[in-house]
Amino acid sequence: MAGRDGQEPMLEGWGRIKGPGREEVSEDLERLTRDAVLTRGLGRSYGDSSLPPPSSPVAKGSRLADRILSFDPGSGLLRAEAGVTLLELNRLFLRRGWFVPVSPGTQFVTLGGMVAADVHGKNHHRDGCFGAWVTGLRVRVADGRILDISPRVEPELFFATVGGMGLLGHILEVEFRMVRIPSPWILCESERIGNLEAFLQALEEAGPLWPYTVGWIDCLSRGSGMGRGILQRGRFAEPEDAPALLPGNLKRRRIPFELPGFLLCRATVRLFNELYYRKHFPRMKRSILHPEKFFYPLDALLEWNLLYGPRGFTQYQCVLPREKGGAAARRFLELLTSRGGASFLCVIKDCGQVGGGLLSFPLPGISVALDIPVRDSTQELVDALNELVIEEGGRIYLAKDAFTRSDHFRMMEPRLARFLSVRRKWDPEGRIRSAQSIRLLGDKP
Amino acid sequence: MKVAFLGASKGMGRALARQMAQRGDDLFLLGRDTADLEKSAADLAVRRGLAGGKAPDPKTRVARCDLEDPATFSPALVAAEKALGGLDTVVVTAGLFASQEELEHDPALLRRLLEVDFSHTVLFCEEARKRLLSRGGGTLCVFSSVAGERGRKPVALYGAAKAGLTCYLEALDHRHRLEGLAVVCVKPGFVRTGMTEGLKPPPFAGEPDDVARRVLRAIDAGKPVVYAPAPWALVMAVIRLLPRAVMRRVGF
Which helix (H) or strand (E) covers residue B235, if one does? Predict the structure, then answer.
């Protein structure tokens, strides 16, 4: 079906880099995924993970398949269709004393997407990825069969699906364990920290004491102030510390239109980062926060991706192994600033153990995530960053990626051969694929 | 409320049923595919449970009822009454939709649509009316459409069925209001659901949740006509006043 004016319809990820494709949605996900090549949730992955192959340009959207199928208040076990959003789970469960075991930095994701990207959160150092809490999946594999799989039933397929970016099968249902929380409010300590080494040390020290830790650093400052930023440590508040009221609905603002791309230049980003850093008191601040403010600060600004102008942006997220220490993170930031990569605050977080997902992103070490507006030089910048990440023994997060070259990806993923052999077994013809898998794995376009 | 709901598994029906369950109403679902209905009933049971209500066993909250098969109407409503221990509200959101082009080219589809959206819906409402009146009244809430408001070029056939339904619902409300039966006729404008997926949304396109909120308020108040989303009340007020000569010229 051609779009208006006979133009090819286009689809985009959160970074707004477009590819040919359109979305088809239905409440009936089983019917919808019959003969499908790709399923997507809310399209919140930044790059091309949720874009279909150009030769078969239809992605099936799971977002209307949004029923909760069972919930056991005794164990917290929840089973739901793949299109249930985290927004809805939080709306229903936070006030009743339940929370998802692992939450990414936005609520605008589906359960299917959370499994496909095997998302991690501020508690990764303690609780691992979302996949670690998944007890069962219902998937439609490439030959059309619908299977119920778990860590014990078809474990190979299960662990390739968790973090497999939707390439092993269409995720139809997800079963996982919710966790009990003492109150829906967050007790948060935030602290301004003057440089990268002190920052990494503070993250490490906070790890054993706090379930949720994260930092925002100014990646434009150089020299002794490099990596200065604000560290947040949090936990769900005990009832005696929490307000008696339930957290209300936060006001959300919307970016009303696409801003011109030049607004985001080095000078404006530098100014923003400076203000963000200075705004925080030099000393430690302790407060009770609305859970959405703590977990999803950017959700307050709907469609913030319009900030980056018509060419869009990519997010670069990598993890550098712990044994390389803080020096690796410093080398990374030095390379970034020398290349003129201007990013709003970049997010820094220490990761814990490697999970079960065959292609899951985290490994023990330091994860750095930054936004890069798309310019003519973006490919070169990503290539240079990737070369450093390969050198350090790290890897990148597929849910963010739009620019990595397949040779670089192969070099940073020793696990790829194993993943591909499982994928060949379940999908010998390489039927289920995405624009990303064409770019990175050499699938047929 | 004790609600028998025909069409709760999709679109606006799903949104409305959820808002009912979340405030503690007890629902019984009617529809064609009981296995699928059970999943919707489970979803509603979880939501009711989280809101502090009793979460009923989903298996006991569904019955087969097919708008293409009037023989299923009465048994389904009896089952609902029995499971809920009474019945005070019946909601119908189910119906068929097809474009004018499809209907013009496919007489079999046209016949099916006219039957489902008009004759059979009326038959179902008659059955529901009797049941509710025998218990002293209640509310019958049925989704018609703004398409039935005027004879309009792009919805000549679908609109005709909905116009007939709207007329019937108005008369029913006049006829039985004093006996305690309130009839609520919902006229949704363009709402983003699976049914309208792929169509280009016009101005004032709405979300199922907004429609559901308005409808629930109307049910509580016994308001006989609801336009939803809200701006459509104004849009339709204008369209109702347009002279015939103008309607002939415009494309909507």
Answer: helix B231-241
Note the pLDDT of residue A60. 97
Q: Which whole-number Å values give the CA distances from B66 to A302, A423, B27, B75, B249, in the listed order?
A: 41, 42, 18, 11, 39
Task: Give the residue from A157, A181, A205 where a domain finishes.
Answer: A181
Query: Which residues in chain A have Cβ-Cβ distances shorter than 8 Å to B39?
Result: 67, 69, 81
Structure confidence at residue A268 as a pLDDT band (50, 70, 90) = confident
What is the span of the domain harbouring residue A321? 186-406
Q: What is the DSSP letter of A27?
A: S
Sheet holding A146-149, edge to edge: A68-71, A77-81, A169-177, A134-141, A146-149
Average pLDDT over residues B95-119: 97
CA–CA separation, A212 and A350 (whole Å): 11
A401: tokens are 């990626």
Tell me how close the Cα of B137 comes to any Cα of chain A, in angstroms. Answer: 32
Q: Considering only CA atoms, which of A170, A174, A167 is closest in space to residue A144? A: A170
Residue A92 has pLDDT above 80, yes or no: yes
Instruction: Grade residue A277 by pLDDT with cuts at 50, 70 and 90.
Output: confident
| Cα distance between residue A381 and residue A387, in whole Å | 10
Q: Is residue A125 part of a domain?
A: yes
A21 in a structural domain: no
Q: What are the Cα distances from residue A99, in Å, to A93, A96, A119, B55?
A: 6, 9, 15, 20
| Least confident stretch, A198-212, A247-261, B50-64 | A247-261
Residue B214 has pLDDT above 60, yes or no: yes
Annotate A312-366 with DSSP letters as a single string: -EEEEEEEEEGGGHHHHHHHHHHHHHHTT---SSEEEEEE-S--S-TT----SEE
Confidence of residue A444 (pLDDT cuts 50, 70, 90): very high
State which amino acid sits at residue A259: L
How near does any CA of chain B get to the CA of A25, in Å? 7
Work out the end-to-end distance of chain A between its first and last CA atoms, rounded to an integer number of angstroms. Answer: 19
* Same structural domain, A237 and A378: yes
Using CB atoms and an 8 Å cut-off, which of residues 170-209 of chain B contact chain A? 193-194, 197-198, 200
Q: What is the ipTM of this complex?
A: 0.93
- The per-residue pLDDT for range B131-156, each reduced to its tens digit, is 999 999 999 999 999 999 999 999 99
Do A285 and A302 share a domain, yes or no?
A: yes
In this prediction, residue A230 carries a pLDDT of 94
A26: which residues sit within 8 A by CB, 6+ positions away?
Answer: A32, A64, A65, B194, B197
Please check whether residue A291 is in contact with residue A247, taking contact to mean a CB–CB distance below 8 angstroms.
yes
Number of domains in chain B: 1
The total domain count for chain A is 2
Which residues are CB-neighbours of B246 under 8 A, at least 6 positions away?
Answer: none
Residue in B10, B36, B43 nearest the CB of A68: B43
How far off is chain B from A366, nearest CA to CA, in Å? 38
Same domain as A228, residue A172: no
